[in-house]
Amino acid sequence: MPSVRNVLIVGGGTAGNTLAILLRRSGVEVDLVEIDPEWGALGSGITLVGNALRVLREVGVWDRVEANIAAVPAHLDHFKFGGPDVPGVCGMYRPTLQAILKDAVRHSGARVRLGTTVEKLEETGDRVTVTLRDGTVRDYDLVVGADGIHSATRAMIGIPDLPRPTGLAIWRVYIRRPPGLEHGAIQHGGPHHYITGYNMVSATHMYAYIFEDARDRSAVRRLDPVAEFRRLAEPLDGVWPAIRESVTEPRQVDYRNLDYLLIDSPWNRGRTIVIGDAAHALSLIQI
């Protein structure tokens, strides 16, 4: 009998889903609550390095992940952080990774509740009494906040840290790969932008990105995202003219200001702990 018998995980992103699967494998009863009724994933592409792939192999989803990644060519794959049998780095379509993990969570036997989250936490002795927004009340041995950089769980347990702006923003687009393009590239400190680059995320698609100074979000929302990304990409050469012409619909474009967060240890208060971006959210420029 494990010393922790039941756990509530708040948040069904990569960290929360992965933890749910591993806890179930250890015989722990798991409830996972996710405020998004669609249990979806934000963004388009994600870059995964070897240590992340090692964990996905441990979770038991590596075969499905491997079938949906775009790994760097072998002659560029020098840093095997996850071991000799997984790529050092690869790209993947983020919603595909989320779908794979969601399936694994459900098959693990974890109970999933969507469209709700925690309203109140009250620790008494060796239990945490949790009240959800839908009125459900239940006791748990442990509560895990995996609810992202703007974690409500973190605030509930009295950790005062808030995300800090980096002063930079990123424009990202999700497009089909131009013919003949085999791997990604990145340029730092070019004449036009701080950082530009692109990564492959599947055999057919890629994402490209441009860093710039952060802007007022309300001003950005008034822009035509296609026209603005194309304007920013205008001076870039190489494969960028093909990237630029591939951006035709607003849904292809994602803009966000970049924040970061790293809370001091301990990451728990009593029997509630925060993990993932709720505890250590690095911006893309810090990875």
TrEMBL record:
InterPro entries: FAD-bd, FAD-dep_Monooxygenase_BioMet, FAD/NAD-bd_sf. Residues 6-282 form the FAD-binding domain. Keywords: Monooxygenase, Oxidoreductase. It comes from the Bacteria. One of its GO terms (molecular function) is monooxygenase activity. This is 2-polyprenyl-6-methoxyphenol hydroxylase. It comes from Streptomyces spongiae.
